[in-house]
Amino acid sequence: MIWCSFALLHPYFYQELSPFMKVTRRLLIFLFLGFFFVSGPFAQSLRKKPDPGYANRWNLGITLGPDFTYGDLTNGLAGPKRNLSMAGSLVIGWQITNVFGARLQFLGAWLNGSTDSLIDGVLVPNPLTGILAEGSLLATINFTNIFSPYRSSRWFFLYGTVGLGYSAWYTEFSNEAYDAGTINTNNPLNNFHTALVIPLGIGTQFRLGDKVNASVEYTFHLVRSDLLDQTVGRSNNDRFDYLAFGISLNLGKGPKKAPQKVYYQPPPVRPTPRILDPAPPAQNQPPAAPPRIPEPVEPQRVIPQPFNYSVQICAFARYTHSTDWIKQHYHIPMSVRIEKSGNMDRFLVGRCSDLECAKQLRSHMIRLGIRDAFIVVYQDGVRHHVIR
User: Fold this and answer.
1) Is the whole-model pTM more than 0.85?
2) pLDDT, tens only, 292-348
3) Cα(first)–Cα(last) distance of the chain, in Å?
4) Which domain holds residue 243?
5) How far apart, in Å, are the Cα atoms of 180 and each of 115, 116, 316, 373, 377?
């Protein structure tokens, strides 16, 4: 990383390059500094309790798109016949948190370049062709989830990548003289080369569903060699860029929630009234008449109130959520209430006077995707038992 920052700022790295390359240098510096400093002011947001549904997921994807070769041969030139070719890659990623992730990428590319030589007053093309293979390990940072905590309804993300890799390439550079190509000379530098490479990029990801994502990414590959285009110049580094259009598949199910523990709550016990012994008679007083024994009265029977029913959809002990968040997250078209028990928050819907109504409400919650919903029975406003 120290070498990367030095290379981006070194005056010889982009000396005598085109305006496009100078703009590229400024963009690279901005991306590099953003990786290590943009998350500082927002570190407090990472200490909150965000929705963990985006983290702890593996993904597998492929990309395809054009690549552009830049060096001493193709400096300042662009076009299908100058520096444009095609590339593709296989990507294996792991989203560690809602913000940070890691990626292993295997890339294959064709290299293309050309310049012109003036021979006897005629411009003669000097074409360059080759192939390249690269393996790299990259860190990813989700800028969208830094500025705004992740929400399950979000479908668009802006992210950046930086890493370290190793490239191997074989290029062929030839000089073609005029006269209908009858005189061809092959350059003796036709050989195989390897070098370290620093990929640095920015991209956007679009969520197409719970499992499928699409992405567009532009990556700069800074090669620690001046032989990518078989032309040695004043710079010790060449570069190729890759505009990737990709699609990926989420393999994990996200973090697992702790199983909800439901305990049976017996009905409250009503205490029996205590009968005190009569006070003893005072001294020097005539004995009191024996107490009158009342006629036995049949105790009044307490008629139990009928049961009421509700449906419990979820409960949390570690995370704190509002009823509005639960309603929006599970797409519930009715009011949600919260019932606290110790450090556990229980979320329930509906108030039914008969069991059949509660069963229909529970079936409706299951169709919404809440498969763990169950019926809670109340008597006299007190939780009595549950029905699964």
Assistant:
1) no
2) 676 666 666 555 567 899 999 998 887 788 888 888 888 899 899 999 888 889 999
3) 56
4) 2-250
5) 18, 16, 79, 80, 93
Residues in Cβ contact with 251 at an 8 Å cutoff, skipping those fewer than 6 apart: 57, 58, 59, 60
What single letter denotes the amino acid at residue 266? Answer: P
Structure tokens at 160: 């950046």
Has residue 28 been placed in a domain?
A: yes
What Cα–Cα distance (Å) separates residue 144 from each residue in 38, 211, 343, 378? 12, 20, 32, 45
- Residue 142: closest CA among 197, 90, 93, 86: 93
Same domain, 18 and 87: yes
Shared-domain flag, residues 320 and 226: no
Q: Residue 342 falls within a domain, yes or no?
A: yes
Task: Based on the fold, state whether residues 42 and 188 are members of the same structural domain.
Answer: yes
Number of C-beta neighbours around residue 10 at 10 A: 14
Contact 247, 214 (CB under 8 A): yes
Structural domain contains residue 293: no
Same domain? 239 vs 313: no
In DSSP notation, 309-336 reads EEEEEEEESS----HHHHHHHTT-SS--
Bin 173: left if φ > 0, else alpha if -120 < ψ < 50, else beta: beta
Instruction: Examine the domain organization and report whether 107 and 244 are in the same domain.
Output: yes
236's CB contacts (< 8 A; 6+ apart) are: 12, 13, 224, 225, 226
Q: Residues 175-204: pLDDT tens digits?
A: 654 333 333 445 445 568 899 999 999 999
Residues 165 and 93 in one domain: yes
Task: Quickly count: other Cβ atoms within 10 Å of residue 325's Cβ.
Answer: 14
